[in-house]
Design goal:
This protein is of the alpha+beta class and 498 residues long. The protein is 35% helix and 21% strand. It has 16 helices and 22 strands. The strands form five sheets. Strands 2, 3, 4, 5, 6 and 7 form a six-stranded antiparallel sheet that branches. Strands 8-9-12-16-17-22 form a six-stranded mixed sheet, sandwiched between helices. Strand 6 and strand 7 form a beta hairpin. Helix 4 packs antiparallel against helix 5 and helix 11 packs parallel to helix 14. The protein is globular and about 65 Å long. The two termini are 42 Å apart. The model is unreliable at 2-25 (pLDDT under 50).
Length: 498
């Protein structure tokens, strides 16, 4: 499935463009007005692409509800607008699709002109928890601002209303906004500047630990400045990390297996295969003959659904079909002509896949590398039969959320944490088109396949997996690098052993 890193980089990549535009040229594009007719044409292509190709468009919302949303936003296109003025119309509609893999980004020209090193951004990194913003990293020039305090307002606008507004423009699965709030943390300073306030100066009001309010005046920083100060104060972040880590506590008869995402990885030029490392980790855990397994998945989103089935095989007692079906809305897609997919590549895709036609969809029956995903997974030759404590959260989405859904439905684990960012009943992802609208060149990332997880219908539609024990990290947990979900699992194990 489409990786979380790809979703995140889809917007973040706009920050690293270096432009040779002059100041006058920048304002020339920023002030460029598209005619009403051009905007209406782009809106039509946007809507028709979704209606023709997106198999989950009416999953969390009815057709009548989506038609109403389209109609309301169409009515606002009655005058010429710049790209930046037009973009919120499409980003809000995209978020209303309720699919975290369906995202939208400004045009490449806007990226080259607007998101430049000369611009000044909000100089704080935030954690967004329960609709509130807390200072996680202070990269401003005012070093006295304490970490962990709640942001009350920015430039006289209440913080809760800022977050609520930005969430209406941020894609997430179903009706819950867990994934959206998790994703927004990483791009808040970009989204704030583009969608809320283009200021270079920020009046910040925070609530200090004693409950009193403190007022700070902050100067905006360029992207390189923010990055440089963060590195000096908090150290640089090495993005190369193993996606599988494990440890064994024989005294407590407990193993911990942490899998941030289902994917291969590379460290210092050395490549690691997920399935091989998983087999080695499970061999060691099974050899240790521990009674308990703390399984932490999805700290960094989703990954490959087949890898999730590989992990699941170690807990199954009989063969299991992970997905009821993989659906496509149409087999012939006219929206391809607005995408980067060539006619030849599209033709090869149609030749190498096989579908079963139903009254309303095309069911995928065969595709290269999808034999097990479309069929059944067999139990591993040796499987873990002890107690499993599955840790999940807002970032557990896509393939990792599908795995959590199977574990819940099959009753294989005690689930601890927060509601997952992914939809319990599956997701829409993969075989995506990057649609470029003909006039503004705004880009829509459009997945073509809907994965229906093979689960019991015991959670409301549009929701993620609901934990058996709700444990949410606080800002203090993040600052002190604590893992309250893991600690809670350890407590449950200790209570059971008494």
């Amino acid at each position: 499935m489409l990786t979380t890193l790809k979703l995140l980089s889809y917007l973040i990549c706009l920050l690293i463009f270096h432009t040779t535009y002059t100041h006058a040229q920048e304002h020339s594009y920023l002030d460029k007005k598209f005619t009403t007719q051009e905007l209406l044409e782009d809106f039509t292509v946007f809507r028709q692409s979704l209606e023709e190709s997106h198999p989950g468009l009416y999953w969390s919302s009815t057709k009548a509800e989506m038609d109403s949303c389209f109609g309301q936003h169409l009515a606002t296109i009655d005058h010429p607008m710049t790209e930046r003025e037009f973009f919120p119309t499409l980003s809000e509609l995209t978020a209303q699709v309720n699919c975290l893999h369906t995202t939208i980004a400004p045009s490449e020209t806007m990226g080259e002109v607007y998101f430049t090193d000369s611009l000044r951004y909000f100089p704080l990194d935030l954690k967004i928890l329960n609709g509130k913003g807390y200072i996680y990293r202070n990269v401003s020039e005012v070093e006295s601002i304490p970490l962990g305090v709640e942001v009350v307002s920015i430039n006289e606008t209440p913080m809760d209303s800022i977050i609520a507004r930005l969430l209406t423009h941020t894609s997430s699965d179903g009706h819950q906004k867990g994934w959206a709030s998790y994703f927004l943390q990483s791009v808040f300073y970009v989204r704030y500047k583009y969608l809320i306030d283009d200021s270079d100066q920020f009046r910040l009001v925070v609530k200090e630990p004693n409950g009193s309010l403190a007022d700070y005046q902050l100067a905006g920083l360029s992207y390189p400045q923010r990055d440089s100060i963060r590195g000096e104060r908090y150290g640089t972040t090495n993005n190369e990390r193993p996606w599988i880590q494990w440890s064994i506590d024989k005294e407590a008869s407990t193993a911990t297996l942490k899998i941030p995402r289902f994917a291969n990885w590379e460290i210092d030029g050395k490549k690691y295969k997920f399935k091989k490392v998983l087999a080695r980790s499970m061999d060691e855990i099974l050899e240790a003959e521990v009674d308990n397994l703390i399984l932490d998945v999805g700290d960094r989103g989703g990954g490959n659904e087949d890898y999730g089935l590989s992990l699941l095989s170690y807990f199954l007692s009989e063969p299991f079909a992970g997905y009821k079906a993989i659906e496509f809305k149409n087999k012939k897609l006219n929206s391809r002509k607005y995408s980067e997919v060539s006619w030849l590549r599209y033709k090869l895709f149609r030749m190498m896949t096989r579908f079963e036609v139903t009254d309303s969809t095309y069911l995928l029956k065969r595709a290269a590398g999808y034999k097990r995903v479309l069929g059944t997974v067999q139990p591993a030759s040796e499987r873990f039969t002890g107690n499993i404590f599955l840790l999940v959260g807002r970032s557990t989405a896509s393939a990792t959320s599908d795995f959590a859904a199977w574990m819940h439905s099959l009753g294989l684990a005690t689930i601890i944490g927060e509601e997952t960012g992914g939809n319990y009943y599956g997701n829409t992802s993969n075989w995506e088109f990057n649609i470029t609208l003909p006039n503004t060149k705004i880009r829509l990332l459009l997945p073509l396949a809907r994965y229906l997880t093979n689960v019991k219908p015991d959670i409301p539609l549009g929701r993620g997996i609901i934990p058996d024990h709700l444990v949410s990290p606080t800002i203090e947990d993040f600052l002190q690098n604590k893992d309250p979900q893991h600690d809670y699992a350890v407590q449950l194990i200790e209570q059971t052993a008494q």
